[in-house]
Amino acid sequence: MAELDSSLDTLPMPFLKHKVLPELSKAVEYGGAGTKALIPILKIGSKLESQEFEAKVSPLVVKLFASNDRAMRVALCEHLSKLVDHLSAKTMNDSIFNNLVRPNHPIFLHCPLTH
């Protein structure tokens, strides 16, 4: 993953968007890559247009915030500042913060936007 992360800036955007991003998303969603693939996904996602981000990255982020994988949720919280500008207010309120604002949930302590 480190090699991929360092080479993202040299690869053409259509290749990243249509080949790399879908494969990374599948790897994260089905448990192969874990949190290691999150940084490249967010890096590619930050280069997408708003509509593309909503279609390709947002559903994955929402699904990962709702998962029981604590490491993934902590990693997402650590990078929440990179996501805020790309997610709609409705998605943030309905799908992200709903999963975070559970007073006794330990993930609540790791999110910078909740303090």
What's the layout of helices and strands?
Blueprint: H1 2-7, H2 13-29, H3 38-45, H4 50-56, H5 58-65, H6 70-78, H7 80-84, H8 89-100
Can you characterise this structure?
The protein has 115 residues and is mainly α. It has one domain (2-114). The chain contains 8 helices and no strands. It has helices at 2-7, 13-29, 38-45, 50-56, 58-65, 70-78, 80-84, 89-100. Helix 2 (13-29) runs antiparallel to helix 3. It is globular, with a radius of gyration of 14 Å. The N and C termini lie far apart (31 Å). The relative contact order is 0.12.
What characteristics describe this protein?
single chain; 8 helices; mainly alpha; about 120 residues; about 0% strand
pLDDT < 50 stretches: none
User: Which bin fits the share of residues in helices?
Assistant: 55-70%
Succession of helices and strands: HHHHHHHH
Number of β-strand runs:
0
As for the number of domains, it is: 1
Structural class: mainly alpha
Output the number of helix runs. 8
The N- to C-terminal Cα distance equals: 31 Å
Largest sheet: none
Average pLDDT works out at 82
Molecular shape: globular
| Cα-atom radius of gyration | 14 Å
How much beta, percentage-wise? under 5%
Brief summary of the model shown:
This protein has about 120 residues and is an all-alpha fold. It is about 65% helix and about 0% strand.
